[in-house]
Amino acid sequence: DQYISSAEAKWKAYSGLVLLLPHGYEGQGPEHSSARLERFLQLSANCNMQVCNITTPANYFHALRRQLHRKTRLPLVIMTPKSLLRHPACVSKLEDFTNNTFQQVIDDNYADAKKVKRVLFCSGKIYYDLLEHQQKENRKDIAIVRLEQLFPMPEKEMDIVFEKYKNAAFCWVQEEPKNMGSWTYLLRREANYKLRLISRKASASPATGFSKIHAKEQQQIITDSFMI
Asked: Measured between alpha carbons, how far apart are the two ends of the chain, in Å?
């Protein structure tokens, strides 16, 4: 509140500080699941910082590279789930590091765009749960689109996705409870992005302390996401 989000507005003080905050619902309880993403997004305005929830090693590399290379100095807040450090699907090709740049939005290259009936927007590690189910069930009628940068909102890239799948229904899928995560931030743009939420129910605690309940809740999110 005092420095990261408002130093430029209050004192014209510029910072390139990078925060790597543990965030991801992995069944480890309320104290090990949330970096309070919603609070950073609540403080986001006037391009005062960047908030990202990245899903690939290459995109993480390009986010850090961009942070050092650009002339403007802005704080960079990255949600960093522990499980992606060892996830077999969370890998990048060498050319992704050398030929690409930071991707604010990553479209689905598995789904058939002509057959897509539903688009699942998501951010962070839940993408890999959705991807596993999509490929296991061969659901080419559902596209999974990753929002790698939450703020500033990549509106042009989002508009391209909405135009590409203009005949589909759009959902926002998150692991966090309804009153947390990115949802309340996205509601500010409800006029532009008509999304239906798929998430845990609103809760006073960031996460349950029971692993069985966590697994049940997580599976329910995946089931609801692919139920048309």
From this structure: 42
- Of the candidates 205, 185, 201, the one whose C-alpha atom is nearest the C-alpha of residue 193 is 185
85-133 tens-digit pLDDT: 999 999 999 999 998 899 999 999 999 999 999 999 999 999 999 999 9
DSSP string, 6-47: THHHHH------EEEE----SSS-GGGT---HHHHHHT--TT
**Which residue's structure tokens are 């209050």?**
10
DSSP run (H or E) holding 131:
helix 126-136
What percent of the chain clears pLDDT 70, i.e. is strictly above it?
Answer: 99
HSE, side-chain direction, 13 A CA sphere, residue 169: 12
Sequence-distant (6+) residues with CB within 8 A of 129 are 218, 221, 222
Whether 1 maps to a domain, the answer reads no
Dmax (CA) of the chain: 54
Q: Which domain holds residue 173?
A: 7-225
Residue pair 200/179 in contact (Cβ under 8 Å)? The answer is no
DSSP string, 76-102: EEEE--GGGGS-TT----HHHHHT---
Strands 76-79 and 169-177 turn out to be unpaired
Cis peptide before 22 (omega within 30 of 0): no
- As a whole number of angstroms, the distance between CA 31 and CA 214 comes to 14
Q: For the chain, how many residues are written? A: 228
Query: Other C-beta atoms within 10 Å of 82: how many?
Result: 14
| Residue at 2 is within a domain | no
Whether residue 60 lies inside any domain: the answer is: yes
